[in-house]
Amino acid sequence: MELRDLILSFDLGAGAMRGGVTGPDGVTLASAAEPSASPPEIEADPEDWWRAAQRIAGVLAEALKGDFDRIGAVAVAGFTRTQVLLDAGANPVRAAIGFADRAAAPLAEEARALAPPGAPEAARLDAFHPALRLFRLARKEPEALARARAVVEPKDFLNARLTGRVATDAISSARLLAASAGGGGSILAALGLDPGLAPPALDPLERLGPVRDGLPGAFARLAGRPVIAMAHDSWAAALGLGALRPGYGYNLTGTTEVFGVFSDAPAEAEGLLSVDWGEGAKQLGGPSLSGGDTLLWTLGLLAPGEGPESAMARLLAAPRAAAPLLFLPYLRGERTPWWDASLRGAWVGLDRAHGPGDLLRAALEGVAFLNRIVLDRAEAATGARVSEVRFGGGGAASADWARIKAAACGRPFVRAGGPEPGLLGGALAAMTALGRFPKLAAAQEALVRESARFEPEAGEAARMDRLLPHFLAAHRALAPLGAALAGETS
Questions:
Q1: Are 392 and 250 in contact (CB under 8 A)?
Q2: For residue range 323-373, what is the model confidence (pLDDT) as tens digits?
Q3: What is the largest CA-CA distance in the chain?
Q4: Residue 353 per-residue DSSP state
Q5: Mean pLDDT value across residues 389-401
Q6: Which of 281, 206, 209 is nearest to 241 (CA)?
Q7: Domains, the chain, ordered by start
Q8: How is 224-290 classified by DSSP, letter by letter?
Q9: What pLDDT does residue 3 have?
Q10: Which of 18, 124, 135 is nearest to 425 (CA)?
C-alpha cells in the first residue's frame, strides 16, 4: 500500500503565496513562495493565484522527488474580505474585489435604510462588507453581476480549480452568509441581490472533494487526494500558532494585521467580529488595515533606499526624546475596531526634539495600541483574561515589535509554530480531518512548539498605559477631520 503521510498546504497572503509539505511530526520537508503578481488590496486577477499555486507545486515536486507522491491531502488557506465572483463554469467574471477597496462606502447609509428592520447584520454594512460591495456592482457593473453564480473567498476559488466544486466555509464567509439569510430577513434580497450568490458553507475540516484528473503539472500526480475545505489564512495561522483554544490570543502581522482572542462562550463587543471558529473556540476580534504596510511606509519615509531590517534596528537604537509622540496608523482607513474607511493617519504631539527614531517607534506603537483596544474590548465582553498572545507573520520576526506589543497589551507575546504557522495550520487541519488527531486541540498540543517568549517590561507597560487614553482622545478628535479631508480632491 502506498504511504501517504504528508500534507501539501498553501497560504495565500497579500504579498505572496506560500506552499509547503509537512511531515507527520509537524516538520516542514520543503517549502516555496511566489510574490504576488500585483498588490491585491484593491483588486487582483484570481488566475494569477492559480498560476502561482501550479508553479509552487512544481517546485515542491522537484525538491521532494518521489516523496511528493506521499502527499495524502491538500489544504489551502488565503486572505479574506475579498470577493471572487464566479460564473456557471467557476471562472471569474471580473477582477477580485480586494480587502482594502473602499469604493462602496458612499452607499452604506442607503443600504442600511433598505435592510430589513431588525436585521443584525445591517449595522455591519460598511465599505468592507461583501453585501455593500455587491450592491455597488449592481449599480456600476450590472453585466458582470448578472453573470455571477457564486461569490467566494480566494481560497475557495483555488479549491474550485483543484476539485471542480464551488463551496466556502462558515468562518471565511460569515458576513456574506449572514447577509444572505440572517435573522430578520435577507439583506441581499432587500438590496435587490440574489441570496443564492452565497455558496454552500462547509465545516473547515470537511473534505471538499478529491483533486480532479487532468490538472496541469505536479497537481496531476495528486489526482484523487482529498482537498480539505479549510478557512481563511487567519484561522490557519492561529491554528499553526497553537492559539486556537479558549484563553489564548493571537496576533498575525503581515501586510495588514489580525488580532483576536478565543473564549468558550459567545460574546459581542463594539467593533469586533464574533465568529465560532470550531471546537468551542469563539473568536472575538478581526482584521485591520494597519501592520507591516504601516512599518514599510514609515521606513520608506525615514530611511529611503535602506533595507527595512537595518533601518529599523538603526532608528530604534537612537535615544528617545522625552516628549511623548503618538501615531494614528490609518493609511488606508481602518477595519477593526473602527470600521471606518474615512479615517486618516497622523503623528500627534510632534516636538522639535523628535527624530526619525521617535517617529518610527510611534508608528509601531500606534499599531500596538489598536491591538490593545481589541484586547480590552474582548476581555471585557468575555469576562476572561487572556493568558498570552501567540504572535506570527512576517512582523513576528522583529523582537523589537514583539516587545512593543507585549508592553502595549500587558501580556506575553509568544512566537510558535515555526516561520510559517499558516502552512503548519493547514497541515494540522488536514491531519485532523484525516483522523490522525481526534480534535484540533490535540493536534496543536502535539505538534506546535514555542520558539520565543517576550514578557511585558514593567516600565514600558506603564508608559503605554499612560499613553493609551491620549491615543483614544487623538482618535476621537481627528476622526471628523479625516472624514472631511477624505471628501476633498486635489
A1: yes
A2: 999 999 999 999 999 999 999 999 999 999 999 999 999 999 999 999 999
A3: 73
A4: T
A5: 94
A6: 281
A7: 6-233 (3.30.420.40), 243-416+457-490 (3.30.420.40)
A8: T-EEE----HHHHHHHHTT--STTEEEEEESSSEEEEEEESS----TT-EEEE-STT-EEEEEE-S-
A9: 86
A10: 18
